[in-house]
């Protein structure tokens, strides 16, 4: 298997930014009065310096992750096949389409090969552009072909440098979001530093480069920055239109580049829904955001040849339901506390019922079953009944889909990030509860006006959205470790905003009866600067050590396998095996596959379960018949799966197959009472004994310490 081994030698005071004060320089009609000339000049200087710092930090982050990637793999020195093997599992599958487009005789022929693909799934022709989110690979390959860079830059470097470049966009977007929330670019600097020093928990781009989230999350961060700007008060109509356009473009690009976009935006829509119900966001802007989400998703649906999974998404059903329910309940935000609460409960129930009805209707019409494995997984994960479903258990047993490990919090705490985040979260949550209660009370609004304003300065619409956003995505991260990158990056923004916000410190000091304007300004700048100095002194030596540590890629068994396949099998040969390995087979050799890691298709999931019978207790005749039904010429068996020890009993792949087949699992431990012993031994173990019942169907043609390749007999 792939390993990394040690490399062998020889081979000052700052203006309050451009955000106008909520309390001064505003006419009764909402227009902003011009400030003094000196203040405007200082404001421009502050924005210029802050912008330069943002761009510099973004570029430094790109160089940083690119250097780590090079140092870990010695990417510039290894062979092409080793570079391609380093794109593990589904990463290799996505990169293979970029390689296919670059190597095609023409752009038109390359596109035709994707639309009518018969090498990704044997005996089937599928539309890759419909099934997978690979438009970024298509765009990048076309760009590489038309730019005069072929003589200077290899295709693989153009690809990975683009992904590392997107990290600059990501960091700049986080920086700008924090800046907008707090009113000072010092907050953006702190957010970027926290992102870099917590790299283990904020990104994994340096070792999973082509992963869809590494394309999508920078655009998601840009979208959040645009929403933060949109939710500011006193925007001019032109500024509002520009912000809406930025939100739409970022939402569209995010949706186009990641198949899980609908679930992330559903959480975002829930945040908007909660805040709108509590009267903490302008309803008109929330409506626009709902419409933008629907429009972006429908546009992606068109580009993906009317992908039914998009049309049947919960996001579209939910957003449409909210808009319908709001039309029905026009007086939702009128009345006293009890009246408002009653209306809200009815509104939530109406939206929930409409969402389920619309979604069920769409799925019934489209006969949609592509995402059923996700709901089976969620049902089992949250304790709504045990399941023997193979696909659901495959997710449940993966560490990435388990609960967030506790050591994550110790790492985040070592940079002070989690401590600051927890403090700011508690403070703003209390403020949000008070503001929400007073908004719903209505009649108490005038009586509590003075106190409400004290809380409102720390909970403007953009801050309220950021609060609910971080809470909801925090819940997602706690339940599913793989989704932590959506939370931890925003955690950096939220914590730095709280630490650098004059409104937050003003509220704290007033609660302690210590408030003065000068004291607030001193604390606003001194605390973040001290935090930055602490981070720099503590983590700079570690970063330098990390950058100086040199390793190299080392996976001789997989390299030997790929070279053997290219040299000893016909180009039309069909290979069966594990999803993860076959992605590499397609990328490195171009051979046809029986299955692959892109799991969002019911037929593929059923096919994968059948192919995986090579690791179950089945007869050689049955396994041969299954494999030949998919046109298989060669099957690859992996010792790391057949004799797996990474997972505990009950979560090994062979255990999942045994339970799904109704067989007793291997080893000591309990079995469910209705499971029976199998009539046959485990196929992947027994085939190595070269018994006549096996050799009549399978002939071993390749073997090393990790892999065994068998050629299938073609019985008439």
Automatic annotation (TrEMBL):
Keywords: Glycosyltransferase, Membrane, Transferase, Transmembrane, Transmembrane helix. The gene is Dpy19l3. Residues 1-10 have a biased composition (Basic residues). This is D19L3 mannosyltransferase. The chain crosses the membrane at residues 41-66, 179-197, 217-235, 242-258, 264-281, 312-329, 341-362, 416-441, 462-481, 487-509, 521-540. The keyword Transferase applies. Belongs to the dpy-19 family. GO terms for cellular component: nuclear inner membrane.
């Amino acid at each position: 298997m792939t390993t990394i081994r040690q490399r062998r030698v020889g081979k000052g005071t700052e203006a309050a930014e451009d955000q106008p004060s909520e309390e001064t320089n505003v006419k009764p009609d909402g227009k902003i009065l011009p400030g003094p000339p000196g203040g405007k000049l200082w404001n421009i200087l502050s924005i210029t310096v802050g912008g330069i710092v943002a761009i510099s930090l973004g570029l430094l982050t790109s160089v940083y992750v690119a250097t780590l990637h090079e140092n870990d793999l010695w990417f510039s020195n290894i062979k092409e096949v080793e570079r391609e093997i380093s794109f593990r599992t589904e990463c290799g599958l996505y990169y293979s389409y970029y390689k296919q487009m670059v190597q095609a005789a023409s752009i038109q022929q390359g596109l035709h090969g994707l639309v009518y693909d018969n090498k990704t799934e044997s005996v089937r022709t599928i539309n890759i552009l419909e099934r997978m989110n690979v438009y970024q690979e298509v765009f990048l390959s076309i760009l590489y072909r038309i730019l005069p860079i072929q003589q200077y830059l290899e295709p693989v470097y153009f690809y990975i440098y683009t992904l590392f470049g997107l990290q600059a966009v990501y960091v700049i977007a986080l920086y700008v979001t924090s800046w907008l929330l707090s009113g000072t670019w010092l907050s953006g600097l702190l957010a970027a530093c926290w992102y870099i020093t917590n790299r283990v928990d904020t990104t994994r781009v340096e070792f999973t480069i082509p992963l869809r989230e590494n394309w999508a999350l920078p655009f998601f961060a840009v979208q959040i920055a645009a929403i933060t700007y949109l939710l500011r008060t006193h925007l001019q109509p032109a500024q509002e239109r520009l912000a809406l356009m930025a939100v739409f473009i970022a939402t569209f690009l995010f949706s186009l580049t990641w198949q899980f976009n609908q679930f992330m935006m559903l959480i975002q829509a829930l945040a908007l829904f909660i805040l709108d119900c509590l009267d903490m966001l302008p309803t008109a802007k929330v409506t626009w955001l709902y419409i933008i989400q629907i429009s972006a998703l429908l546009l992606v649906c068109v580009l993906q040849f009317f992908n039914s999974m998009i049309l049947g998404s919960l996001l579209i059903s939910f957003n449409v339901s909210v808009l319908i329910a709001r039309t029905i309940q026009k007086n939702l935000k009128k009345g006293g506390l009890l009246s408002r609460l009653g209306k809200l409960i009815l509104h939530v129930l109406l939206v929930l019922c409409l969402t389920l009805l619309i979604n069920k209707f769409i799925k019934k019409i489209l006969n949609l079953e592509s995402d059923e494995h996700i709901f089976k997984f969620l049902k089992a994960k949250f304790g709504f009944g045990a399941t023997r479903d193979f696909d659901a258990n495959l997710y449940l047993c993966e560490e990435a889909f388990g609960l967030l490990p506790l050591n994550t919090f110790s790492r985040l705490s070592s940079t002070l990030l989690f401590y600051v985040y927890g403090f700011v979260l508690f403070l703003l949550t209390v403020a949000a509860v008070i503001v929400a209660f007073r908004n719903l009370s209505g009649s108490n609004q005038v009586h509590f006006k003075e106190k409400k304003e004290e809380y409102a300065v720390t909970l403007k619409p953009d801050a309220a959205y950021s609060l609910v956003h971080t809470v909801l995505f925090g819940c997602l991260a706690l339940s599913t470790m793989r989704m932590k990158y959506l939370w931890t990056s925003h955690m950096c923004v939220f914590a730095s905003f709280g630490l650098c916000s004059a409104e937050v410190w003003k509220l704290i000091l007033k609660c302690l009866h210590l408030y003065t304007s000068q004291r607030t300004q001193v604390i606003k700048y001194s605390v973040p600067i001290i935090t930055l100095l602490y981070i720099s002194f503590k983590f700079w030596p570690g970063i330098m050590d990390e950058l100086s540590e040199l390793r190299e890629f080392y996976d001789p068994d997989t390299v030997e396998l790929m070279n053997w396949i290219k040299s000893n099998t016909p180009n039309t040969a069909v290979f069966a095996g594990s999803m993860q390995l076959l992605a590499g087979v397609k990328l490195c050799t171009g051979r046809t596959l029986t299955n692959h890691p892109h799991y969002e298709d019911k037929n593929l999931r059923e096919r994968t379960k059948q192919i995986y019978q090579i690791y179950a207790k089945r007869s050689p005749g049955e396994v041969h018949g299954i494999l030949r039904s998919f046109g298989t010429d060669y099957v690859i068996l992996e010792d790391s799966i057949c004799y797996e020890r990474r997972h505990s009993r009950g979560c090994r792949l062979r255990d999942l197959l045994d339970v799904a087949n109704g067989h007793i699992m291997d080893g000591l431990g309990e079995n469910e009472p209705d499971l029976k012993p199998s009539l046959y031994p485990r196929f992947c173990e027994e085939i190595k004994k070269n018994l006549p019942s096996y050799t009549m169907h399978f002939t071993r043609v390749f073997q090393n310490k990790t892999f065994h390749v068998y050629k299938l007999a073609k019985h008439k």
